[in-house]
Design goal:
The protein is mainly alpha-helical. The protein has 2 domains: 1-87, no CATH class; 106-364, no CATH class. Helices cover 69% and strands 6% of the residues. The strands form 3 sheets. It has a two-stranded antiparallel ribbon. Strands 3-4 form a two-stranded antiparallel sheet. The protein has a two-stranded antiparallel sheet with strand order 5-6. A hairpin with a 5-residue loop joins β3 and β4 (184-189). The longest helix has 41 residues, at 324-364. The protein is globular. The termini are far apart.
Length: 367
Amino acid sequence: MRTLSKVLWPLILLLSIVWMVGGAIVTSDAYEDGQVGGDVLDGVQSLASGFNINVPAEIPLPLLFVATGLPLALISLLFLLRNRGSRAAGEANMLRLNTRRQTILIAVLALVFALFLWNMRDIERVFVQPDGTIETQGSAINVSVITFPVRLFVTFVHEAGHSLAALLTGGQVEGFEVALDGSGRALVNGGNIALIAPAGYLGAALFGSLLFFLINRIPRWTRGLSFLIGLAVVILTLSFAMPSADRDAIALIVGIGFGIGLIALGWFAPRVINLFVLNTLAILTGLNAVFDVWHLVMNPGAGAGPIVNDAERFSIEVTPLLPPAVVAFMWAAIAVAMLVFAMYFGLVKQVEGELSEVVQGKAKVPE
């Protein structure tokens, strides 16, 4: 029975992921102009009618596949994690004593590594103008060979934050895109602009800060977090970042690349590798988010032609008495507070607890 469980749940999880990913791709507009998607929708509606279930004709088919496959994937993942937990129960007592010290060490190493990457040489001079001249992009970050993919991932998280805020406030999302220069755009209709506008910068800051806090306070969740974050990124990509007539494939490449990478990391890599990679990603994401919004404070009029930036749009539509620079400064303060909170409660408090135990242990040693 135990052998069957080892094979059954991974198989169900794999089939669920194939169902979600394959179904979303086949039914997207990027595949045969949507003809296959229309045929699939007709088949789904016919099948549902046999069970007296009404499927609205306007439902996005990619979301239908995700909604039907995700519960089964989560259930199978839950059983997999439970089985792993029972097998590891015998070793838990031995590992518990060293887990916190190991977590602190890895967090410090990741912080040093992330700061080293942050201060690497720029390679910003890569954008050639129509007249043949090379323009140095004055971005808010240092774009290095290694951090460049993270820069694109931060933009992905930024635009995903706008999209999720629109959905949560009753709006609709046509999709979002990511550009090689680190900019992006989310195409949304409706929703509450008071929440949608700041959800990009603050969403990226919250993602980095919350990730750093969780993996250092609850390190046993690290592999599961890698897997779930990767799965969420893949779902967001297939739902909102598919290429179309007015959107290229950069967001698709970034989302699928990071999503599959995080899924593989959580599934195959040991916990210490997951800790180091997720710590580095969290720190770089948080730093990028803070410096991006600070760049907006220093350049409140920044935008792309007729498209105004998030702070300016918030100022115009929500707080007309506050100029964009003030709005951006408020967001920067919130982003910094998130990062400080994560660093203090995720790392500093851990170190304080370790030092306190060491001091108490020495005090109990008989003379």
